[in-house]
Write a structure and sequence with these properties.
The protein contains three helices and eight strands. Strands 1, 2, 3, 4, 5, 6, 7 and 8 form an eight-stranded mixed beta sheet that branches. Helix 2 packs across helix 3. The longest helix is centred in the C-terminal third of the chain and has 27 residues. The termini are far apart.
């Protein structure tokens, strides 16, 4: 075998090894999404049109990795567990789905909607915490307000402080348990908002 042949074989082996390492590294990640709720509606309000937004999340949740609260001043980001898309997008989409279901199929329009959109009540949400701790328990803390979509006057302000036990099933990974617990917490907040909408919005 000539030197050229030896060099070619060595290059091929190195390339193959690099490709295998790349695939192993890439495939080592697990990707998660929030799941919408299957709970029955709070009330049938399918004729209602709700404007959702703006919905804001704290900056420490903007990264791709799932986050665990270690203590009051420390958080830890998982090396192998990641959100399948930015958490802010998932949160808003899942909230929209949960809120529509809680209102019996109400139409939900994301912010910013056209001025001509037939929105009857607008919901703004400011999330302060959306996280799990080392035991897998989920916490969702948020302030939200119902506004008149035309005058922007606040008609009702609410606070949600939800703690959802980790739960989990045999064989479930920490990432799966965390995503499920966070999904349940979000569903509970959606129902709290739905009750406020039903109570404070004139039936149509």
């Amino acid at each position: 075998m000539t030197r050229v042949d030896v060099a070619a074989v060595a290059l091929l082996l190195a390339t193959s090894q690099s490709a295998c390492l790349f695939r192993a590294s890439r495939d080592s990640f697990q990707y998660y999404t929030l799941a919408s709720s299957a709970d029955p509606p709070v009330k049938s309000a399918s004729s209602l049109t709700v404007g959702l937004g703006p919905v804001t999340l704290p900056g420490y949740l903007s990264g791709p990795s799932l986050m665990t609260r270690v203590d009051d001043t420390r958080v830890r980001y998982a090396e192998g567990d990641r959100w399948a898309e930015p958490l802010s997008k998932q949160f808003t989409r899942t909230l929209r789905e949960d809120l529509s279901r809680a209102l019996g199929g109400a139409r939900i329009i994301d912010y910013a909607w056209y001025p001509s959109a037939p929105v009857e009540v607008a919901v703004a949400v400011n999330v302060l915490a959306f996280e799990v701790d080392a035991t897998g328990t989920a916490t969702l803390t948020a302030g939200w307000a119902l506004r008149d979509p035309h005058s922007h006057q606040v008609g009702y302000e609410g606070q949600s402080a939800i703690v959802e036990p980790a739960g989990g099933t045999p064989g479930e990974t920490k990432g799966e348990a965390a995503a499920a617990a966070l999904s349940r917490a979000l569903a509970q907040m959606s129902r709290e908002i739905a009750v406020a909408i039903v109570t404070n919005t004139r039936s149509r």
